[in-house]
Specification:
The structure is a single chain. The chain has 15 helices and 21 strands. The chain is an alpha/beta fold. The protein folds into 2 domains: 273 residues, Acetylglutamate kinase-like (Carbamate kinase), CATH 3.40.1160; 147 residues, Aminopeptidase. The strands form 5 sheets. It has an 8-stranded mixed β-sheet with strand order 3-8-2-1-11-13-14-12, with helices on both faces. The chain is elongated, with a radius of gyration of 26 Å. Bound molecules: coenzyme A. Coenzyme A (COA) binds next to strand 18, helix 13, strand 19 and helix 14. Coenzyme A binds next to strand 18, helix 13, strand 19 and helix 14.
């Protein structure tokens, strides 16, 4: 076992605990040899208290059955009209896929169930085309799904739903995944497929904001695979309805799910919502989140340990950065007014939000507060992150003599021998 990997995974626990992830898998995924490992990876997520919901597709199995039975399909993905014969094929395919998922989950010690959680209406007649037995989702039974999740059961959702009279309709699984992620306020939606050739998509960035994804879909509407276009279009819809991150993964890559979620680099394509971020003064209710945020950096000796009392005693010095009301960064500005100096301290950004410019934003924010208050010089003490200060936010190296006397005394007593970094405010 690789203990470093395990430690790496455990750092994400506070971030992911009790959050809902919707895993949407195309029918082809269950036929791949990596599927058994995927079930184990989902068991890892469950053991970290992630609440997992699975949505599956049936297109691959429908196409195979259609050939076997010589039945022409009116639509295999639930976006075109579904005639009675195609619905029948989709029902057989759905049973087959669901049973394969239940069996693999059982082997991975995952409890799962097939709930009737979708209320579906006929798609109707659009542009003169009668969509017959194709449905559109009217409602997701959120209470039922929460009930299962509370009991540690993974709901498996098929791309078939019924109306209140018990009539069955075929729905597109990518759209089902969006409806579920939206209704249950999932933090992640993960599309797994086995038939998209991502290597061919040289124009597709590894990380796209929702507007970049829109521009890609617009530019490549006629040139790229319909499967990829469907994933991207539904990712955009999911982002627009509040899901922050959507990942597109290929089952043919070993350990794709865990590598994507638990490594900085990732192996798939991510579409992310452009978040509303704001920096504000810290309040008493934030102290717990600040302690949680900095704990990993304290363990890595990047930050000095602080207690709840330390922070509360100087709460007015702390600022927090929120994205969509979640605390993801902090910085403190400890003033030494008699020397017109202030220390930039306790700078921290949640691991999953690193390298998006937030660290710089926090330092610039501290800089502008200092300027408004007439402080002439900022300093920071860093034993491990000094390059960030000198290379990214314009500090230069100084000496302990540059510190205010009371801070210098503490510096010498600490024995940390951090580098002293300085920046003129004006
Ligand atoms: C240091 C920290 C605040 C940076 O936050 P961030 O949001 O990732 O920073 P930004 O996105 O604004 O900047 C990222 C850039 O800084 C670089 N960077 C990050 N840490 C660095 C370091 N220790 N040395 C040099 N460069 C570093 C990144 O490589 C990236 O470079 P690029 O823009 O050229 O790609 C964050 O990594 C963190 O919380 N670290 C742990 C706590 C810590 O060390 N705090 C400082 C204590 S004094």
């Amino acid at each position: 076992m690789n203990f470093t990997n395990l430690r790496g995974i455990l750092t994400y626990v506070p971030e992911f605990r009790d959050k809902i992830f919707v895993i949407a898998m195309d029918g082809a995924v269950v036929t791949h040899e990596n599927f058994a490992n995927l079930a184990l990876d989902l068991a890892v997520l469950r053991s970290l208290s992630v609440r997992v919901i699975v949505v599956h597709g049936v297109g691959h199995q429908m196409r195979e059955l259609a050939v076997e039975r010589s039945v022409p399909l009116s639509s295999s993905d639930g976006t075109g009209p579904t005639d009675a014969a195609s619905l029948k094929v989709s029902l057989t395919a759905s049973c087959q896929v669901a049973q394969q998922i239940l069996a693999a989950f059982g082997a991975a010690d995952l409890r799962a169930a097939l709930p009737n959680a979708l209320v579906v209406h006929p798609f109707g007649i659009v542009g003169g085309v009668n969509y017959l037995l194709t449905g559109r989702i009217e409602r997701v039974d959120a209470a039922f799904l929460h009930d299962l999740l509370d009991r540690g059961i993974v709901p498996i959702i098929s791309p078939i739903g019924s109306d209140r009279e018990g009539n069955l309709f075929r729905v597109n699984s990518d759209a089902v995944a969006v409806a579920i992620a939206e209704t249950l306020r999932a933090v992640k939606l993960i599309y797994l497929s086995g038939e998209i050739d991502y290597a061919k998509e040289t124009d597709l960035a590894r990380q796209l904001s929702v507007s970049e994804a829109e521009s890609f879909v617009h530019r490549h509407a006629n040139t790229t695979s319909p499967l990829l276009l469907s994933k991207l279009s539904h990712s955009i819809a999911a982002c627009r309805s509040g899901v922050r991150r959507i990942h597109l993964l290929d089952i043919r890559i070993d350990e794709a799910l865990l590598s994507e979620l638990f490594s900085q680099v990732g192996v798939g394509t991510m579409v992310y919502a452009e978040g509303y971020e704001s920096i504000r003064k810290a309040q008493k209710k934030d102290v717990r989140s600040i302690l949680q945020l900095i704990s990993q950096s304290v363990d890595a000796a990047e930050l000095l340990p602080r207690t709840r009392q330390n922070i509360l005693a100087r709460l007015g010095d702390y600022y927090v950065l929120e994205i969509d009301r979640g605390l993801v960064g902090c910085v403190a500005l400890h003033r030494f007014p008699e020397f017109s100096q202030a220390e930039v301290a306790c700078l921290s950004v949640a691991r999953v939000y690193e390298n998006q410019g937030l660290g710089r934003k926090l330092v610039h924010f501290a800089h502008s507060v200092a300027r408004e208050e007439g402080i002439r010089q900022l300093f920071a003490l860093s034993a491990r992150t000094y390059n960030f200060f000198t290379q990214k936010v314009g500090f230069r190296e100084g000496t302990p003599d540059d510190l205010p006397p009371s801070r210098r005394l503490l510096y010498e007593q600490s024995g940390r021998r951090s580098k002293v970094l300085l920046k003129q405010v004006f």
